[in-house]
Amino acid sequence: MRHLVVLIHGLHGTAGDLAYLAKLLNARHAVDTHVLVPTCNEGKTGSGIEAQAQRVVDSIVNEASLLGLEQSETIAISLIGHSLGGLIARMVAYKLIQPSFKLRHYVSIATPHLGSRFESIIPPDAAAVVAGQTGKELFLVDDKDPLVATLAQAPFLETLAAFETRTAYGCVQYDLSVGFETSLIRIDNPYLEPFSTRSITAPLKALMNSIPVAYSFKYTSLTSSQPQLRDVSTSAGESTYAGLLDSNTDASQVHVQQMLLSLNSLPWTKIAVFSTRPLFGHVDVIVQDERWNIQFGHSVIQDIVDRVLETPVNAGV
C-alpha cells in the first residue's frame, strides 16, 4: 500500500516552514512513501479552518491522481500539522473519508487543540483583526458552537479515532504562540517552576547562551542544545477534569472542558518538548529555517520521522 505523508503549515506560515521535516522524511527513501507539502494556503491562513482544509483535500486528491493510483487502490494517509495546521489536518481527515484513503498517523506539533483563548496575550476581541475568520475560530468566538469545539465532537471525533496512531508534541516553555496545555490537551503544566527570580533570569541567560550557537553554520554542537523529549501520555479517559469549572464559568470554559473530555477519550501519545531557547520554541520545534533552528529542534523532527515511518523511537529520555 502506498503511503502519502502530508505536511500542513500553520497560521501566517508557508510550506517552506516544513522543508526540513520533508527533507528528513524523503531522506529515508521509505518504500512506496511520498511526501506532500501543500502550498495552497500560503497567504490565505485567515480564511478559516474549513476553507483551508478543503484546499488541502483538493491538493491530496490531485497528488493521488499524479501518482497514477488505480481507482480501486487504497492509499494510506498520514497527516502532520504544525500549530493551526494540526486543526486543519483534523478537518482534512474528516473530508477525506472514503474507501480509497486509509488514515494511518496523525501528528500535531504545537497545535492549539483547545483553542487559543487562554494563556494568550491577544484579547479575544482582537482575534479577527490579527487572523480574520481563523482568529475568531481559534479564540472560540466564531459561533455559539465554535468550530474548534465542534471538531472534538461526533462525527469529527470518530474520524480522529480512525487513525492508527495519534501523537501530539507540545513545548513545556518558550512557545509564545501555543501553550503546553492546549497543545497536549491538558489543564496544567507540572513542569514549570513557580514564579521566582530564577524563573525570570534563567530564560534570559539561556537566550544569551544560545546566540553564538544560533549563528553557527558548522553545527559543531548539534546535540548540546537539542530539546529533550519526554513521553507524558496517559490512558484514554484517565482524567475527568471535573475541577475545571466553577460557579463563574463562562461558555468558552464549558467548551474547553468538553474538548478535554472528548479528545482525551481517545488514546494519544503525548510528547513534552523541553525547548532550550527562549522566545523561539514555536519555530525551533519544526526547524522552520535549517540555518537558525536546527540546533534547537532536530531531535523533535527526528522523533516525528521515526514515528511516521515506523522506525525505532527513543522518546522518553
TrEMBL record:
It comes from Chytriomyces confervae. PANTHER family: LIPASE ROG1-RELATED (PTHR12482:SF62), LIPASE ROG1-RELATED-RELATED (PTHR12482). It holds the Pfam family DUF676. Residues 2-182 form the DUF676 domain. This is DUF676 domain-containing protein. Belongs to the putative lipase ROG1 family. InterPro entries: AB_hydrolase_fold, DUF676_lipase-like, Lipase-like.
